[in-house]
Write a structure and sequence with these properties.
By secondary structure, the protein is of the alpha/beta class. The protein has two domains: 209 residues, 3-Layer(aba) Sandwich (Rossmann fold), CATH 3.40.50.720; 212 residues, 3-Layer(aba) Sandwich (Rossmann fold). The chain is built from 15 helices and 15 strands. Strand 5 and strand 6 form a beta hairpin. Helix 9 crosses helix 11 and helix 13 packs across helix 14. The longest helix is centred in the middle third of the chain and has 31 residues. The radius of gyration is 24 Å and the shape is elongated. The chain starts with a strand and ends with a strand. The structure holds nicotinamide-adenine-dinucleotide (NAD) and uridine-diphosphate-N-acetylglucosamine. Nicotinamide-adenine-dinucleotide binds next to helix 5. Keywords: NAD, Oxidoreductase. It is an enzyme of class 1 (oxidoreductase). This is Nucleotide sugar dehydrogenase. GO terms for molecular function: NAD binding; oxidoreductase activity, acting on the CH-CH group of donors, NAD or NADP as acceptor; UDP-N-acetylglucosamine 6-dehydrogenase activity.
Amino acid sequence: MNICVVALGKIGLPLAVQFADKGHKVIGADVNEKVVELVNAGTEPFPGEHDLDVKLKKAVDAGLLTATTDTAAAVAQSEAVVVVVPLFVDAEGTPDFGWMDAATRAIAQGLKPGTLVSYETTLPVGTTRTRWAPMLEEGSGLTAGEDFHLVFSPERVLTGRVFADLRRYPKLVGGIDEASGARGVAFYEQVLDFDERTDLPRPNGVWDLGTAEASELAKLAETTYRDVNIGLANQFARFADKNDIDVKKVIEACNSQPYSHIHQPGIAVGGHCIPIYPRMYLWNDPEATVVRSAREANAAMPEYAVDLLAAAYGDLKGAAVLVLGAAYRGGVKETAFSGVFPTVEALKARGAVPYVSDPMYTDEELAAHGLTPHQGETVTAAILQADHAEYRELAASDLPDVKVLVDGRRTTDPARWEGVRRVVIGG
Ligand SMILES: NC(=O)c1ccc[n+]([C@@H]2O[C@H](COP(=O)([O-])OP(=O)(O)OC[C@H]3O[C@@H](n4cnc5c(N)ncnc54)[C@H](O)[C@@H]3O)[C@@H](O)[C@H]2O)c1
Ligand SMILES: CC(=O)N[C@H]1[C@@H](OP(=O)(O)OP(=O)(O)OC[C@H]2O[C@@H](n3ccc(=O)[nH]c3=O)[C@H](O)[C@@H]2O)O[C@H](CO)[C@@H](O)[C@@H]1O
């Protein structure tokens, strides 16, 4: 089969490589000339995706993967088109469709009868049917459902382990009509392989959710669930702090029966997905008060961590405070919506002098994110923001002048911090 993947980013490129690995002829379309050049040379444009370098080279050497900036021409040669161009939302959750609209107009220009178009970018519910279908029809002169098939199939993989996740998670598909859904299922069954799993209600594989809307909601719902769950954990943690209860022990106890899955409280909920998609959901469903209050509870946590620091340390005016971890969570080199930013702002608002360090970032990289790198300055307090594995080994002797440590992720080993006031969230 000839397949076009529109956008060769952190998700699109591994997908294109996966399809080529299954023996299909893939054309990747991206507006970035540099990306296209690198892909055609068999060189990965970004680091960090497990196995991508080897699989990409193999696909390009076998002549199964090429890249172009001409989306319309690539679409015209393809039986299936997979779209993973990013969509952005602002603080109110309002989507900016700019990049996706441009991609869709280009796809429409090359669209021919019989093609399947699958959108994988996370979208507000209703977008596939009410925005993409008319836009594709207008640009192509074809009719969605009659002349071409159209589905939404959310991408649920995590960057860094895309190939493994593609096998691990069921592929969800929903069409704008029954025939589109069936075509989407047949397509993904041809291009993906699945691990056997005994913990699912249906065999692992491609699951047809019946409509594009159900499939759009599935992605927003699973990410919103995570945010709401963490929001609840954070609520319990703050209550536990007031009442001298160790929330970690409580959560472990609750989760010892099969119907409780309380997540972990912490200083921040960051990343591209979990803080963002609840806002997208709220754009669809502004009355969703549970979602809104959980989002607010999570967004308030960096300030709360600084409150805990001030309560233990005293006036923070002029205090040099080290924020440990710029990444939004441990083990990733990614600062999108990281708690480091609101934590630094909250410290500055109280007159403290924040420095930042992170084992995954150089001083130059931290500075490029607008953060002040810690270059050995004396610090008298610290806040752990990201649960990097390295911090498990960190000890008071590494930061000899620190009097108070707020461990926002319960990552540090209390035995290594004797003599320092160590405060945890919900402790
Ligand atoms: N990154 C993740 O962890 C992740 C996980 C699951 C799902 N997703 C979904 O995948 C989407 C894409 O994320 P990503 O991380 O791959 O993005 P990315 O930023 O890594 O890459 C985006 C690519 O899109 C290209 N592009 C922009 N406009 C284009 C256009 N009009 N036509 C063709 N290409 C265009 C850019 O040049 C870039 O190469 C997200 O919006 C999200 O919905 C991402
Ligand atoms: C495990 C999980 O669902 N990962 C999803 C998540 O990855 P993502 O990489 O965003 O990571 P997580 O969902 O694990 O974490 C998001 C944020 O929440 C914080 N946090 C997490 C768990 C917790 O119990 N308490 C807590 O505070 C983390 O520190 C981090 O700041 O978004 C991606 C994009 O949609 C999805 O593809 C991934 O499947």
